[in-house]
Amino acid sequence: MSMIKRMRLFIYLMIGVALSGMAFLMCIPFLHYDKMQSYQEIYLDNALYQSVKISDRYGEYLYDGGYSDDEWTRLATFHVLGDTYGSVPGAVLNDIESDETLTIDLSWQKGAYQLLKQSGLNGTILAADFRTGEIYCMVSTPSVDVLNNTEVEEGAYLNKATTCFPPGSTFKTATIACLLEAGIASGTYNCTGREGDVSCLTAHGSVNTIRNKDDEYGDVSCLTAHGSVNLKQALYESCNCGISYFGKTYLTPSQWEKDIARFHLLDNTVIAGCEIASGFVDASEDWMWAMDGQGKDLISPAALACFYGAIANDGIYHPLTLNMGQTLEEDEIMSLGSARWIQEALREGMHVWYGDALDGWGKTGTAEVGDGTDHAWFVCCLDDPEIVIVTMLAGGGSSQRALDITTEFVNCYVREVE
User: Fold this and answer.
1) What are the chain's domains?
2) What predicted TM-score, i.e. pTM, was given to this entire model?
């Protein structure tokens, strides 16, 4: 073979090798598409996290290309902002695309966090405008300091405002709403401390009593016998037996379940753009206790805030939102008459039991967990400003503790009472 032919063959081989290499390199993105896409996303996400700015409703920066230098701000806003790893479901940083102004008030947020920390209890405080659904405060403890997270408490990544818990007596209001929507607005009951398979902690007195036809719906008790109570008193005196009696007498389990769902108490979309835990009720077992917020009931503080907010808003439900200026579709979940009846009953109850602690109305609740501990609840709606507040203390015991923290939060931060 001549030298020229050998050179020509060599050149052809080199060209073939070069073309094969180029073809291989062109195939790499297709052969490793997932990894290449992942690297690209990480690069773009990091670039976004380093440039994006998030502020509260008054322009105070919560995140400015990085977390705040203030430790209290980082701790108080962790469950709202989340981290760059998506550790907190529904957090703002999970889906952020550009600068955002949130509805929260940083001073309320930090104040609520500090009150929970000072109490030594883990829980949540959520406050929102019940006319618009704008969230002013959503705090959960324990929290995480993203710049110093070498020691993280158990449950710190859990946002308790969007997690479901037994609601206790705060849920009695929902059963009352079912009765009112069914046309039952009055009646009397004699609480002797026990009804069917239900009992009270104390006797409430003599009333016109119609005993359960049978005990198919279970047994309920009160801590005391409340004696004679009407429908309003059964609500604000938190009479387990009375609520269960009226419920089983005038409602059906299926009707009750449908109304609870219609009130959006089980929804996982009560915060716009954020999927939270779905609530749960079951009337097929222990319906008597379920009507009182026990049994298998599980409701999120966020859903409870929406429900009570709808009552304060004369029956009009608004989803919650963290985004300033967002307009959301409202829903009439109960009549004006039902909403006003509940407002009046709980306002009367607040005055009877707690005097003028708060200018508004609300409902306490103690939820038995089953392990010997109780969750402490308090839900209230203020007249001025028009805010719904839900406080839940996990393992907090008496609902009085939740009421006390809420009162301090309102006086020190919401109204800034001297």
Assistant:
1) 168-414 (3.40.710.10)
2) 0.85
